[in-house]
Amino acid sequence: MRILQFYTPRYRNLQDIGIAFALDPENSDDDKGSIRFLVGPNGSGKTNLLKFLAAIFAALRDEYTGFRPDNPAYTEPYYLVYQLRGNTITIAHQGMGNLWLRILPSHLSTAEQATYYVRGKVTDAPEDFQDGLPGTDTLVPQMVLIYSSGEVKSWQRLLNATQLAEPRPLSYVETIPGDQLDPEDLRDEEETDGNGIRHVFSERVLMVRPDDLSAALLAAFIQHYSQRTSPTETRFSNTLADVQVDSLLTFSLHIRPPQDDLSDFSRAALTAIANEATLGLKNWGDAGEHELYVFDVAVSRESGDVATRLLDRLAGDRDGEPLTPFQLFLTLITLQEEGVLQQIDLVLNKRHPERDDRHTVLVTDLSDGERALLQRMALISLLAGGENLFLFDEPEVHFNDTWKRNLIDHIERVLEAAQSNSEVILTTHSSITLTDAYAYEVIRLGYTGQQNVPLTFGTEPGEILQQVYGARADVGERALRKIDEAEAAGNREQLEELLTQMGPGYQRFRVVSSLGEEGEDAPSA
Amino acid sequence: MLHPLDLPQCAEQLYELTELARLTLAFATQSDLTTLPQLDVPKPHYHYRKAVAKETNLAEGSVNRIWAKYIAFMHSKKRETAGNWLLDQYTAVAVPVVELVKIPLVQKQNPDIAQLFAADVALLNQLAKTQDDLSAIPQFHYQAQKIAIDLAVDKLINKLMRNFYEKLFRNSSRPIRTDIVGGTGDLNRNVLLREYSHLYVCPGCDSEHESIQDGQLQTQADHFFPLSRYPFFAVHPLNLVPYCILCNSPLVKGDNDIITKSNAANLNEIFHPFRPAQKFVEIRVRREPTKVALDITDQGQATPRMTGFLNLLDIQSRWEGEFFQSHNLSRAGNRVFRDLKIAFKSDRRVANHQFQLDNQALFERLQEIVADSQLEYGATPGAMTTKAYAEWIRDDDVERNHLLVRLRQYFQPVPNTTHQQVSQNVQQQGRLAIGIISTV
C-alpha cells in the first residue's frame, strides 16, 4: 500500500493543492512498508488531508452506494493515485459520485494495458472503459486504521456517515445525476457467513476511539504473552520497560448479559470468554446487572497459557487458524460497539523507577503520559502484516522527548518484523520525531501548497525547528529576547550573568563571541 | 618572546630581591674563615646554630662568627633587617653562605663574582629594554668566566641562587615580607603569576594560556635564560616570564638556551620576552603532498634570531600541527571555518534562509577574517596562524574552492527535495483528470 499523489480543488483549507506523497512514483517500491511524515503549521490542512484520505477509502469500501453529505469523498472532487496489491490505481472523482478510475498493474509499463472503469456521468471519460466499479478487494486495503490524539467527534461523524449506511430519503438519491440505482439497493446487505466472522474481519475503515485503546492494550499484552509470537515479533517489551511495567497480572472484562439481538459473532466470542475465564462473577456492578470475567495471566494450565488459549478459543469453529492479536482487538471492539463489553480493567505489576520495589496498579491509575505511551505503542504493536493504511494524527502528543525519540523506530521495527507493506502516514509537530525522517518521506504543507523539505535525517533538532517549522531561533523566545537585549545594549555584565546560566549550544557560543569582540580584556574563566 | 609583555607591578620588589642575592653572594665570596674577626653581636638562635653547624660540619662558634660578620656587612649596606631575615632562612641561604665562606679566598681564585653579577644584570636590563647595538658585548660575564671559577664554588653559587628562587620565592606558604623587599605587599611567585593571569594567550607560542584551571593558577613562570646557566637571573623580573604549561615543559623548552654559539657574538640576534618578535613574524602556508607546511620568516628573511626563536619553543612543528593533517581541518582551519559558520548563520537569519554562498562571499569573509585576526594578535589564541590560513585560502583558488565545497556541505546540505515541483505536476494532472481544465 502506498499513496502516491493527491489533489483536491477545494476542501476546507486544502484549496487547489496537489500533494506529492512520493517524489518518483514510477520507481516507488510498494513491496515494503513506508512511513510518511506530514508537517506544516497549524491550519495548513494536515488533519483535513488525513480525513479526506480516510473518507475516500470509506466511500470506496461502500462502493459509493447512496450519498453521504458528511463525507467529502462524495461531495468534493479529488484525484488520487495509490499503489495497492501490485496495481497502480488512479481515481478521478468529479463530484457527486461521478468518477473514473484506472487500474494499471505495476509490473506493466505501458498505459495501454490499463483497465478503465467509469461510474456515473464523467466528462472526458476514457474511451475504453467498463461501467461500474471493481470490487473492494482491488480498491481498498484490508484495514484503514485511524488514530487521532486530537478531537474525535468530527472523525466519527465523517466515518459513521459511511459505516452506518442508513437508507437515505429519496431526495438524496435524486441528487445523484444519472444514477439508475434502485433505492432498495441502498440498504446495506449484511455480509455474513454463519457466525458473522467474515464481516468483522473484512475490509474496514476503523477509527480508534479513546475507549478502544484499552482493548488495544489488552490485545498487545495477549500478543506479548502468547506462545505463538516470537520475541522479535513483539516490540512491546521495550515500551513496558519505558514505563517500568514488569508484567500484566490480571485482566477483567465487564459484560452486560447478552440480549436477544446479539449477533452470532458476539455470542460465540462471549461463550469463549466465559469458558476461558479464571473466575466468573454474576450479578456484578451497582445494580447487579453485569457479569465480570477475571483472567489470571500467571496461571498456566496444561493446555497452555491464558493468552494462547484465549486466542485459540475465540477462533471458534474457524478451521485451524487461531485468531491473530489484531483480530482479537477487532473482536473486543466489536463487542464494545454492540454494548456487550462494558469495561476492560488491566492490573499491572509496576516497578518504582529508582527503588527496588514493585506494586500493582490499574491501567487507569497510570499517569496520562504513561497510559498514552502504553496504549499507542500497543496499537502500533498490533499493526498486522499485509497491506494496510495507518493514519496517525499527532501520535506523539503527551510523550516526553525520550519517548518521541523512540516512536518512529518502534513503528518501523514492528512493520519490518511483520514483513508488512503497509503505509503509515502521521502528522507531527515534533522536531525530535522528524530527526528520524528521510527528506523524501516528509510532506510539508504550507498555507499555499506543498513545499520543499530541507534534509532532516539525523539532523540537529534545533535546525529542524528553524528550517522546517520556521522558528526564529533554536531556543525559546524568552531566552532569545534576553540575550538580544543584552547584546544590543552592549551590557557586558548582563551578558556574563546570562552566560553563567547557559548550557552549550549556538546561543552560548554567540554570547561568548560577542563578549570576546567587545572588550579589550579577554573573558576570564 | 612573541607577544609584548608589561613589566609586573612587583618588578621593583624583584629587583630588590635580586640585589639582596647579589649582596649575599658578594659577602660569601669575599670572605673566608681566616678573615672573620670576633664581633660582639647577638647570638643566633640555638636551634638555628645547631642546624647550620650540623649541615656545614663547622663548630658552632665559627657559625656565630660568620653570622656576626654577615650582619655587620649587611649593616654597612644599610640592610640589616634583610640580613637577619636571610640568615634565618638557614636551609635556603645560611647553609650555602656558610659553605662558601668555609672555602679559603685563595681557592675561590677570587674573580670578582659580585661584579660579574652586577654586570650581567645590567646587560639583561639593556637587552630587554633597548634596541641599541649590543654587538659589542659578546657574552654574559658569568657564562664567559665560568671556566675560571672553581667547580665547587660554581656549584655553591648555583645552589645559593637556585634557593633564592625555589626556597624563598616559590614557597607559597611563607611569602617574602614587605619590610625586606619594600613595595606594598608580600611577595612570592603566586603574586607574580596573578599579575599575568589576565593573559589569554601564551606570549611564547600564541596558543591558549590556561592561566587558571580548577581554581588554581596554572601559568608557569619560566626562566627565559635557564637557571642552570644564568644563576644571577634567578629572581630577576625580566627573566621570569609567564609561559603556558606546554611551552615550559621539559619536552619543549626545558633548559634550552636561546643564546647559541652562532648568535653569541651578537646579542641583537635574539628575541627576548620584552623585545617581542610579533611584528617581525611572517607566516606563509603552502601545501605539500602529505601535509600543509609553514614558512615562518623574519619579514621574509630567514634570520638567526627567527631560527633561534623557532627552535627554542619548537614552534614550527607545533604550528604546523594546527593545520591540515591528511585533509582534516585542524585548529587554525577550524577557527576560520567556525568564524565563517557564525557569519553565514547570522546572515542566513537576516535573509530568512536565503543567502548566497559563493566564491565572492567567501573571499570577502576571508578578507574580514584576515583583518580581524591581525587586530586580535595576542588577544585571541592562534590569531597568527588563523590569519596565515585565511590569507592562504583567500589567495589560492584551489584551496578556496575546496573550502567552499565543505561550507556548502555544511550550510546547504540540501539538494532541496523536489516536492514543490512534483506537487505542481500533481496539481496539473489532478485538474485535468477531474475535468477542471481540458488540456494541460
Q: What do you see in this structure?
A:
The complex is a heterodimer of chains A (525) and B (440). Chain A is α/β, with parallel strands linked by helices and 525 residues long. Chain A has three domains: 2-189 and 422-462, Rossmann fold (3-Layer(aba) Sandwich); 209-382, no CATH class; 477-518, no CATH class. Chain A contains 18 helices and 21 strands. In chain A, strands 2-1-4-5-6-7-8 form a seven-stranded mixed β-sheet. In chain A, strands 10-9-18-19-3-20-21 form a seven-stranded mixed β-sheet, covered by helices on one side. Chain A has a five-stranded antiparallel β-sheet with strand order 12-13-11-16-17. In chain A, helix 13 links the parallel strand 18 (388-393) and strand 19 (423-427). In chain A, helix 7 (212-225) crosses helix 10 (306-314). Chain A is flat. The N and C termini of chain A lie far apart (59 Å). In chain B, the strands form three sheets. Chain B has a two-stranded antiparallel sheet with strand order 1-2. A two-stranded antiparallel ribbon of chain B has the order 3-4. Chain B has a two-stranded antiparallel ribbon with strand order 5-6. In chain B, a hairpin with a 2-residue loop joins strand 1 and strand 2 (216-217). Chain B is mainly alpha-helical. The longest helix of chain B is centred in the first third of the chain and has 20 residues, at 11-30. The radius of gyration of chain B is 32 Å and the shape is elongated. Chain B is built from 18 helices and six strands. Chain B has a domain at 279-411. The chains are: A alpha/beta (525), B mainly alpha (440). Chain A binds chain B through residues 5-9, 16-20, 23, 77-79, 90, 92-95, 122-124, 439-440, 442-444, 449-455, 466-467, 472-473, 506, 509-510, 513, 516, 520-522, 524-525, and chain B through 197-198, 200-201, 211-213, 342, 345, 349, 353, 379-380, 413-414, 416-420, 422-431, 433-436, 438.
